[in-house]
Amino acid sequence: MWSRLIALAMLLLPAPALAGVKENVAALAPSATVLVVDARGVELVAQNADKPFVPASVAKIVTAWLAMETLGGEYRFETRFYLDDARVLYVQGGGDPFLISEELAVLAENLVAAIGKAPIARIVLDASYYPQNLRIPGIEDDGQPYNALNSALAVNFNTVFAARSGDKVRSAEPQTPITPLAISQFRARGPRGSGRISLSQDPAVSLQYAGELIAAFIERAGGVVGGKIVQGTAPEGLKPVYVHKQSRPLSEILVDLMRDSNNYTANQVFLEIGGRKLGGPVSLEKSLKVAEESLAAQDLGPAIHIEEGSGISRGDRFTARGLARMLELFEPHADLLRGHDGGLNKTGTMDGVRTLAGYADTTSHGRVRFVISLTGNDGAMRFKLLRAIEAGL
Q1: What CATH number is attached to the domain comprising 364?
Q2: What is the pLDDT of residue 19?
Q3: What percent of the chain has pLDDT over 90?
Q4: Is the pLDDT of residue 61 over 60?
Q5: What is the pTM of this model?
Q6: Does the first or last residue of the chain, that is N or C, have fewer Cβ atoms within 10 Å of its Cβ?
Q7: Secondary structure, 3-state, the chain
């Protein structure tokens, strides 16, 4: 009996290798937040683990977990089309974050097959699923393409990718037709040469561009758009003539989201969580309510505070122990992560913030969950810490 207890006690004592990795972490970044937890929940390294930090894009792990729990990996966003007796086409957006050109080409072929090639009198764009006053904390006044405004009906991540020589503007990708609004916007704000601009200045402009691009694809598919493109709502009682289901299931969208760290996509997904759970129209408040209830059910309320779904808000606050617990919950979906180093991890980057969290495979302790947070702009240091953890364990 006593021999077993002594043996157990010996196992629980810090091994020299474990002490060594702690020393290496402290030597590399003594002020960093670092937590490493094994599959049994044993903390192997814990440095400043209770200090709240700004997560930046590692907050997307929470959004992905909420999405998988609430919507499911096979969930598909929908865009609905209605046609009245006067051949007015109503396009009702459902918040699909992946209405890219390749998707629009398939959509248009199916739509034209459903409604025929007779001229469309006009197109009415219905974006009422998202409120007009929707704003995401941290995105205001930011013109970066990956921070475009969220919308019920947006195409190509609410951006225009074009090129110009002098005053002449052309599409920078063969799969995307150039439209009049794209030309005018790129002339006004685009670079000399090729580049991508965000349609984040005016929601009406981005919605109009969605309509123009959908019309261009309808015409490519053999249809005819004879009238104006305007904004409005689909009449009540009118049945859809075609419902387009996004070709990518949510799980594939989340893989792209994690790899590219697109804030626009993250918040489209986050808003759908509240819209699906509590009904439309979507709102940030609805999604935050679902998030808070889900986190509280896992006793994570005090440890994970989010203001939106992408991590762009500096008001987001995590603790390392809270995020490590989230990683435990997220582990069945760990393969959704696509780290820059090829690992199962997610980075977070904003001015003065460098974070890294995920899973690492070690020789002595198997797969571990880790959280790293640094203040400053040394992005390489988080990977140096990860390599020290992997080498020491």
Answers
A1: 3.40.710.10
A2: 80
A3: 84
A4: yes
A5: 0.92
A6: N
A7: CHHHHHHHHHHHCCCHHHHHHHHHHHHHCCCCEEEEECCCCCEEEEECCCCCECCHHHHHHHHHHHHHHHCCCCCCCEEEEEECCCCEEEEECCCCCCCCHHHHHHHHHHHHHHHCCCCECEEEEECCCCCCCCCCCCCCCCCCHHHCCCCCCCCHHHEEEEEEECCEEEECCCCCCCCHHHHHHHHHHCCCEEEEEECCCCHHHHHHHHHHHHHHHHHHCCCCECCCEEECCCCCCCCEEEEEECCCCHHHHHHHHHHHCCHHHHHHHHHHHHHHHHCCCCCHHHHHHHHHHHHHHCCCCCCEECCCCCCCCCCCEECHHHHHHHHHHHHHHHHHCCCCCCCEEEEEEECCEEEEEEEEEECCCEEEEEEEEEECCCHHHHHHHHHHHHHHC
